[in-house]
Design brief:
Elements lengths: L4 H19 L4 E7 L3 H17 L2 E7 L5 H13 L5 E4 L9 H7 L11 H8 L8 H12 L8 E5 L6 H10 L3 E5 L6 H5 L4 E4 L17 E4 L3 E2 L5 E2 L4 H4 L5 E2 L6 H21 L5
Parallel strand pairs: 1-2, 1-3, 4-5, 4-6, 6-7, 7-10
Antiparallel strand pairs: 8-9
The structure holds 5,10-Methenyltetrahydrofolate.
InterPro entries: Aminoacid_DH-like_N_sf, NAD(P)-bd_dom_sf, THF_DH/CycHdrlase, THF_DH/CycHdrlase_cat_dom, THF_DH/CycHdrlase_CS, THF_DH/CycHdrlase_NAD-bd_dom
Family: Belongs to the tetrahydrofolate dehydrogenase/cyclohydrolase family.
Keywords: Amino-acid biosynthesis, Histidine biosynthesis, Hydrolase, Methionine biosynthesis, Multifunctional enzyme, NADP, One-carbon metabolism, Oxidoreductase, Purine biosynthesis
Length: 281
Amino acid sequence: MILDGKKTSEKRLSLLSEKIGESGLYPRLATVLVGQDPASQLYVRMKHQACERVGIGSIGIELEAVATTQDVLDAVHRLNADSMISGILVQLPLPSQIDTHAVINAVDPAKDVDGFHPMNLGRLFSGSPLFSPCTPLGVMTLLSEYGIDPTGKNVVVIGRSIEVGRPMAALMTNANATVTITHSKTVDLSSITRKADILVAAVGRAHFVTEDMVGEGAVVIDVGTNYGEDGKLCGDVDFAAVEPIAQAITPVPGGVGPMTIATLMENTYRAEYLRSCGSLV
Ligand SMILES: Nc1nc(=O)c2c([nH]1)NC[C@@H]1CN(c3ccc(C(=O)N[C@@H](CCC(=O)O)C(=O)O)cc3)C=[N+]21
């Protein structure tokens, strides 16, 4: 079975659009893009398009590739103080001269729709999340839409990033899975991944997950967004080889990516909703 993230994200965006319409609220997302990386520009553009589609206002702040940490912090501080802005997204990766941790730490946790602030990661880790990172939360939503319950399952995550691997493991733990995080220093990776009921690949290398790493009947989630030599987008999983043995698998494109964007929209609405109730000051 193919887990269709495109279709599922469309469904979630339609529902969200109705919900926003009925709420009388007008959420607004601010994106911060530093430099001219074409992939980052594309992703930010897609986020603004999704905003438009569901009735979320959006503004884009663009800084030059040579911007300093202080320049980015200044932009974030202005957005924190701007009562018109519900959510802030600083597009990653930032150019190497910028202190990414300092920037993430500067975002008001109540506007942190990416869920990368240590307070939001801490809340997620402690089982009482406020905003969870969009990609792993989108994976949870996709599984839930297909009736796949992680309870009691062996979940293996390949990758330990703050954006995906670690929060993915926390969300799966909160959902009662038994979780293993693996990474580049893991010894005998395939003996671990073969035991997974649900395998999440967040490596960043095309065709990294081959059929010998996947057990018969596993659910395979491909978080990779790699550009092949042909310039085409591809995931971390060798889809053609793995699809026949998987019970369910996400394609790239059309899998996790669109769910990431839909979840960002849901988080942004949530930020505005919580603010309107005065739940967050
Ligand atoms: N602060 C921050 N938050 C992010 O959420 C974030 C980020 N930085 N930096 C980069 C990654 C990557 N990311 C994607 C979002 C959507 C697709 C997506 O929708 N992809 C489409 C295809 C798009 C295409 O045509 O290339 C698909 O998979 O079907 C992919 C990747 C968000 N990220």
